[in-house]
Amino acid sequence: MRDGLLSGKVCLVTGASRGIGAATTKRFVEEGAIVYANARTPKNLDIVCREMSQKYPGCMKALYFDVRDGMTSKQAMMQIKKEQGKLDVLVNNAGVMKDALIGMISKTLMQELFDTNVFGMMNMIQLAAKLMCRQNCGSIINLSSIVGIEGNPGQLVYSATKGAVTAMTKTAAKELAAKGIRVNAIAPGMIDTDMFRSIGSEKIQEHLNHIRMGRLGSPEEVADAIVFLASDLSRYITGDIIGVNGGVMV
């Protein structure tokens, strides 16, 4: 067994094909975990799984399903139970970000963001909790956002979904604490991912002017905070929303 903060832990990371999810998966493997990495699109994770397994045999496995689909999500959880007998950590990272100004927001946009960012996450929390309750232990880590706390012009729908993540986290933490299950959230600020880069260089520079540390955060820096919440170092922390934002002023 590899030594590390997550040695022997079985973890599921959703939205693991890029950005924060990909960085988290790599850090989990480095810290000794057995990682089930999720993506919606088949084959998206095959190459990284092979590469990581060459370095750390049996450490990583791809699971292709959509968190919005209750049936395939349940099948994935049953597969983990069958193969490992437990689930120690769930990282709810799968998410969608699309912007629209008030008055230009369509019902389709609202449905798309809430289906993944809220309803999909609720689905995963319920499935993980059923398995973790049998163990009387576990850590669920939800990805929120600073805009879910502070708000941001042009992101009415996205900020609403991330605000819902904060509320879900606090409620689930209270409900599941007696079962030994911790539920926390990470609220990143401006992180250098493909999703964030899609806003364009002009807007990125505008955001940089409001970050006290003067730079974007990296996915790896968010992943380090997630590792902490997944590990026993945070065994008495639940219901918290931890900001990873470089002192950003939104």
The CATH class name reads Alpha Beta
Count every helix, treating DSSP H or I runs of 4 or more residues as helices.
9
Largest sheet: 7 strands, parallel
Question: Which stretches of 5+ consecutive residues score pLDDT under 50?
Answer: none
What fraction, in percent, of the residue positions are helical?
40-55%
- For the termini, the CA-CA separation is 44 Å
Secondary-structure element order, N to C:
EHEHEHEHEHHEHHHE
What Rg is obtained from the alpha carbons, in whole angstroms? 17 Å
Strand percentage? 5-15%
Give the structural class.
Answer: alpha/beta
Number of domains: 1
CATH architecture assignment: 3-Layer(aba) Sandwich
Strand order of the largest sheet: 3-2-1-4-5-6-7
Q: CATH superfamily name?
A: NAD(P)-binding Rossmann-like Domain
Shape descriptor reads globular
pLDDT average, as an integer?
A: 93
Question: What is the name of the CATH topology?
Answer: Rossmann fold
List keywords for this structure.
7 strands, Rossmann fold, 250 residues, globular
Describe the protein in words.
It is a single chain. The chain has a single domain (10-244), classed as Rossmann fold. It is 46% helix and 15% strand. It has helices at residues 19-30, 46-55, 70-84, 107-135, 147-150, 156-176, 194-197, 201-208, 219-230; strands spanning 10-13, 34-39, 60-64, 89-92, 138-143, 181-188, 241-244. A 7-stranded parallel sheet has the order 3-2-1-4-5-6-7, with helices on both faces. The radius of gyration is 17 Å and the shape is globular. The mean pLDDT is 93.
